[in-house]
Amino acid sequence: MYQLIDGKAISRQIKDELREKVEGLRAQGKEICLAVIQVGSDPASSVYVNNKKKACEYTGIRSLAYELPEETTEEELLALIGELNSREDVNGILVQLPLPAHINEERILLAIDPARDVDGFHPVNVGNLSIGRPGYVSCTPAGVIQLLKRSGIEIEGKECVVLGRSNIVGKPMAMLLLRENGTVTVCHSRTRNLKEITRRADILVVAVGKPGFVDADYVKEGAVVIDVGIHRDENNKLCGDVDFDSVAPHTSAITPVPGGVGPMTIAMLMNNCVEGLR
C-alpha cells in the first residue's frame, strides 16, 4: 500500500511553525510585511492572491494588496516596484503572474530588489541557489523538498528524475535535489528514451504541464512520485500531470492533486517572508 503525501497537513504544520516565529519576532519589535501586486483581474490569479492574503493573515504577516487595472502601463508598475523597494517596512514584494501582454514580465521581475524577491525568481537568487549561497528559493520546488523530508523520505544517494525544465520548477527542483545529495537527471520534450530514464527513478518529480501525461509505464515499482501539475479535466475536476489511478498502486508514496504540492507553494512563500527577516 502506498503512502499518500498530504500537502494540506504538511503546509498547515509549516504555517503553524511560522505563526510562532512571527509572534516571537513581533515581541522583538519586528514586523514582517509582504506587498502583493496584481495587474488585471485574471480569475485564477485572483484566487491565488486571495489565498496568499489568507495565509498572511493566518501566520501574522502584514500584507499590502495592490490590485491594479488591466490598462496599467509598464512604467507605472515599475514606479510602484521602485517605491516598494525603497520602503523599509516592506520585506517582500510579489508580482502575480501572468501579467497583461503589453507588460514585459522579465523587466518587471528584474526590477524587484533581490533582497525582497520572496518568489525566488530574480537571477541573483537563482545564481545563489546554483552555487550554494543563501538566498530566496522558488517556492514550489522548496515545497517539494519539505514534502519529502517531512514524509520521512530520504533524498541522499537516491536516483532522482525531474520531468520538466522550466525556470520556475524544473531547474530549481534539480538544484535543490542536488543540494540534498540526490543523483539528478532532468528530462524534457527532447529527451530520448524517456520511459527508460523515468523508470530508473527512486524519486520522480513531474512538472510537464500536460494532464495525465505520466502513466504506470513511466514509473519504477516502489518509486516516490511527486506531481507538480494542476489542470481541469473534461469534467472540470482538478487533476495533475500524473494519471493517479494507474500510477499510485505502483508507488511507495505519491502526492494527490489537489492537496499535494499546491498548498506547499504558499506555505513556502510565507516561509521565505519570515526567513528573510530573521
Description:
The chain has 278 residues and is α/β, with parallel strands linked by helices. It is built from ten helices and eleven strands. The protein has helices at residues 7-27, 43-59, 74-86, 105-111, 123-131, 139-150, 170-179, 194-198, 244-247, 262-277; strands at 3-4, 33-39, 62-68, 92-95, 159-163, 183-187, 203-206, 223-227, 231-232, 238-239, 251-254. β5 (159-163), α7 (170-179) and β6 (183-187) form a beta-alpha-beta unit. α1 packs parallel to α10 (262-277) and α2 (43-59) crosses α10. The longest helix is centred in the first third of the chain and has 21 residues, at 7-27.
Q: Count of helices?
A: 10
Give the overall form.
globular
> What is the N-to-C order of secondary-structure elements (H for helix, E for strand)?
EHEHEHEHHHEHEHEEEEHEH
Q: State the total count of DSSP E strands.
A: 11
Specify the oligomeric state.
single chain
- Uncertain runs are none
CATH superfamily of the largest domain: NAD(P)-binding Rossmann-like Domain
What fraction of residues sit in β-strands?
15-25%
- The CATH top-level class label of the largest domain: Alpha Beta
Terminal CA distance reads: 41 Å
Side-by-side strand order of the widest sheet: 1-11-8-7-5-6
